[in-house]
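User: I'll paste a sequence; please echo it back and then give the predicted structure.

Assistant: Echoing your sequence first, then the prediction.
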Amino acid sequence: MTGTRQLTVREKLRLSFSRRFRDSGFWYGLAIAVIWPFAIFGTRIGWRGGEHIPREGGALLAINHVSFSDPLFDVAFTISHGRMPRFLAKSELWSTPVAKYVLAGGKHIPVYRESARATDAFRGAVDAVKRGEVVAFYPEGTYTSDPDGWPMKSKNGIGKIALLTGAPVIPVANWGSQEFLVPGKGRPHFFPRRRVTVVAGPPVDLSAWLGGPRTRTALDGATAAIMADVTALVADIRGEQPPQVAYDPAVERPAS
């Protein structure tokens, strides 16, 4: 990994106070205001590649998922580069007393799992992109179950929306947040301060599939190309080679 810059105290203050309410809605902005200081000042956070996030117009962020705390750092990264991300979140959260105000105010998109309304998430995401929003995806659907933390096999929803909209897909990699908040654990680790890195890359080249038939093969191919770029960014941060085959929770990875 080269060129990743750790934020200064002044930059952290600017993130925490000057941009948190920009296009966020009151409740989402308030949630950011309450939670951010703990994470931003409780970690050694650094990032690069923010110039790849479009300053205007619809776009998709494809992000690997290693910790429940990832959205916090991904929001900070995106807002610091002038955009407010909209996330897909399971519909059940819209029924909880506080979360429903945060999610609705932040213009986030409900995902109806295992129901006749499952396609509404795609429709909502497509509509958001067409409105000029930045929509953030965790294509894996949950934080990775790969034993070594690499991105695992992903669902092809992001490939479908990318081909439907033609919007640029920006790969984004998280690393270190899994040490700040260990998956499955409820308590973050503030001491010693963990290094958290977020890196974005240039838009994924999807020219081989854009404009063609949106078959299952095309959706799988586009999604694989997206996740290959995300995995390459993770590998760069870690300074390691990723596995040749992405971990599939339903299939044991073949011996290397």
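The chain has one domain: 5-238. Helices lie at 9-17, 26-41, 70-80, 99-105, 119-130, 157-165, 177-180, 216-238.
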